Amino acid sequence: MNKRTPLWMRPGTIGANILVLAVSLLAIFPLIIVLVTAFTPQDETIAYPPELLPSTWTLDNFQGVFDRIPVWSQLWNTIQMSVGVTAISLLLNSMVAYALAFIDFKGRGLLFGLLIATMMIPFQSLLIPLYKMLSEFGWIGTMTGLIVPRAADVAGIFLLRQFFIMIPKELRAAAMIDGASEWKIYWRVMMPNATAGLLTLGIFNFVGNWNDMLWPMVMTNSAEDRTLTAGLALLNGTAQGVIPYGVTMAGSLISVLPLVIMFAFVQKRFIEGVATAGLKG
Amino acid sequence: MPLQQQGHPGWTPLRDRIIVTTNAVLDQPAPDGAGQAPQKRRSGRTYNFQRHANRTGWLFAAPGLAILLAFVFFPAGYAFWISLTDSSGLNKPTFIGLDNYVEAFTDADSLNAIWNTVVYAVAYTPIVIAVALFLAIFLNRKDLFARGAQRTLIFMPFIISMAVAALAWSFIINPNTGLMPYWFSKIGINLPDLLNDATWAMPTVIFVAVWKNFGYFMVIFIAGLQGIPGDQYEAASLDGANAWQQFRNVTLPGLRPTMTYVIIVAVNTAFQTFDQIYIMTNGGPLRSTETIVYRVYVEGFSNFNQGYASALSFVLMAITLTIGLIQLSISRKQERDLV
Questions:
Q1: Which value, to the nearest 10 degrees, does the dihedral of the CA atoms of residues B289, B293, B298, B301 take?
Q2: How high is the pLDDT of residue A151?
Q3: Around Cβ A50, how many Cβ atoms within 10 Å?
């Protein structure tokens, strides 16, 4: 290859650049539509021919969202559920992972097998028994009901175990000599050393729960108890014939904006995390 | 070795000695017999150490394990019991044996849903993998304009919810008010009413899933590509291999573990498709986009046929289990091949 030719002038490069740029635009296009339509007057969203940009910008759609769904309580539910599941599952998953990675206890193989079997059960196939169980407990429509059944997950346990086993075992041995209890070794020595893994899993769980629609939809009865993502389904009512696209896009924007802002801060870590999770799978 | 550590013969610092002991215990494979401590003859201390390890190990695992047993393992068994009854969620269920399963495999609607799900998975998986791999190879090139920024853009659809993605695409492809049919009509292509056309609805929901996930798989593929040593490509090009031959003989074999992971994730998520069906098509038109999970939802929570819906859930579980077992055997084989 001729290294003196500027990179962008090399044959094939321009074609590749155009192609990838087109894909990038396709990836981002619906998000731009959400953003723009959220501020487009309702009559312009159903006008023909459709225009990319509105003639005037409006905030009416957001008023429409607040009229149709209890946005604030749904947003609060979303935050509670995402933060709750993420925090609790990081703790419980890391404890199991710690035991698997460091403690040579009797029955470890049994536990391993049990976890692998559990991993193969799709959560969607448990909706009905879980609904019955939560009804029995009186947990339908409660935050406890949304969080507790998700407080541990096998994929998370295995991911953290992968991070733990990369930490030298001598570290644990040395801490033992210094008289540290097992809990102290876990909390003070190993957890700080597995920050990358914890962050990756934490972001994954947070995004996953924020975006989940089916679980909060099934496990709540009233709009007040739902999360925003599940609440969006309520905006899309086709009963009146015309879907109020301005309002649905405004609602969509409210539900994705916090995530997009968070993503702006952690995108590098998150993308790296996805990559390592793939390599470790 | 520092002078002061060379005490009388046979002396080693206390610290080193204990580390050796603990390491010896740590490196032991888990003992098979109950209370069978390794190196029993040594002293009571080692024995206690093992007993202590047994207790702390299970104590650490207990909270997480309790959640998994209560909310995954138990409901899986419970689902099986419900599937053997005529439970509606409101009545007092009676045992009806395998009737629900017989119905699941004879009822046209359920067979249709199973078939749709298989079609969805079989179409979605290779498409999303091909697109993601193709993009990964491009975005791994150093001569690309704003490479990092474009990676982020392509990854963006993965972080938004499928609900929002489905709403946005429904609007974009709306035959009356959407931009896409309008733009296509300008270049002389008349798009059908994609979501209300029994032929096009399924390809459309698959397209939305591909659009949402190709960035995710692309990122995984890029990491896999970067794990392939560059000298393999050098050797191949010295041997006169062209780009395609290099792809076939260096890239693809180098990506094999990544590929296994990606296929499993793609197939599994495909079998669990619900969100965009619920928002975009409600299973229609003419049930052409009804998937297993969608049908479980409708039967279980709208039609109150919870026994029957549980039988369908179990079919889903069986499919996922089969895929999981295949995954296990493949990764075992790969590990063997590596050794």
A1: -160
A2: 95
A3: 21
**ipTM > 0.90?**
no
Residue A37: band (very low, low, confident or very high) from pLDDT cuts 50, 70, 90: very high
Locate B177 and state its tokens. Answer: 């008010």
**Beta-carbon contacts of residue A186 (< 8 Å; ≥ 6 apart):** A94, A95, A98, B60
pLDDT at B296: 93
Altogether, the residues listed in chain A come to a count of 281
pLDDT value of position A16 = 81
Q: Please tell me the distance from the alpha carbon of residue A192 to that of residue A190, in angstroms, as a whole number.
A: 6
Put simply, whether B151 touches A (Cβ < 8 Å) is yes
Contacts of B168 (CB under 8 A, 6+ apart): A30, A31, A33, A34, A249, A252
Q: Do A128 and B261 make contact, defined as CB atoms within 8 angstroms?
A: no
User: What are the residue boundaries of the structural domains of chain B, listed by start?
Assistant: 17-83, 99-338
Query: How is chain A split into domains, by residue range?
Result: 73-280
**CATH homologous superfamily of domain A73-280?**
MetI-like (1.10.3720.10)
- Dump the DSSP string for B32-84: SSTT--TTTTT-HHHHHHHHHHHHHHHHHHHHHHHHHIIIIIHHHHHHHHHHT
pLDDT at A192 (0 to 100): 93
Percent of chain A past pLDDT 70, that is, above it, reads 92
pLDDT of residue B338: 63
Which residue in the block uniquely carries the two structure tokens 């619900």?
B274
Q: Say how far apart CA B300 and CA B294 lie, in whole Å.
A: 10
- Say if residues A204 and A275 touch (Cβ distance below 8 Å): no
Question: At which residue do the structure tokens 């403690």 appear?
Answer: A103
pLDDT given for residue A242 in this prediction: 60
Residue with tokens 């009356």: B176
Residue B171 CB partners (closer than 8 Å, separation 6+): A33, A37, A45, A243, A245, A248, A249, B177, B178
Instruction: Identify whether the C-beta of residue A249 lies closer than 8 Å to the C-beta of residue A33.
Output: yes
User: What pLDDT score does A44 carry?
Assistant: 85
Q: How confident is the model at residue A69 (pLDDT cuts 50, 70, 90)?
A: confident
Question: Are B60 and A182 inside 8 Å of each other by CB?
Answer: yes
Distance CA B246, CA B278 (A): 43
Best of B12, B39, B167, B313 to disrupt the A interface (most A CBs within 10 Å) is: B167
Residues A109-137 pLDDT 10s: 999 989 988 888 888 889 999 999 999 99
Give the residue ranges of DSSP H helices in A148-213: 154-164, 169-177, 182-184, 191-193, 195-211
Q: How confident is the model at residue A11 (pLDDT cuts 50, 70, 90)?
A: low
Q: Which of A13, A20, A186 best tests the B interface by mutation, with the highest count of B CBs <10 A?
A: A20
Asked if residues B333 and B260 have their Cβ atoms less than 8 Å apart, the reply is: no
Identify the CATH homologous superfamily for domain B99-338: MetI-like (1.10.3720.10)
Size of interface A-B (CB pairs under 8 A): 333
Weakly modelled stretches of chain B, pLDDT under 70: 1-47, 338-339
Q: Confirm if B168 and A249 have CB atoms less than 8 A apart.
A: yes
Give the mean model confidence (pLDDT) for residues A186-203.
Answer: 91
Name residues 39-98 of chain A within 8 A of B (Cβ): 45-50, 52, 92-93, 95-96, 98
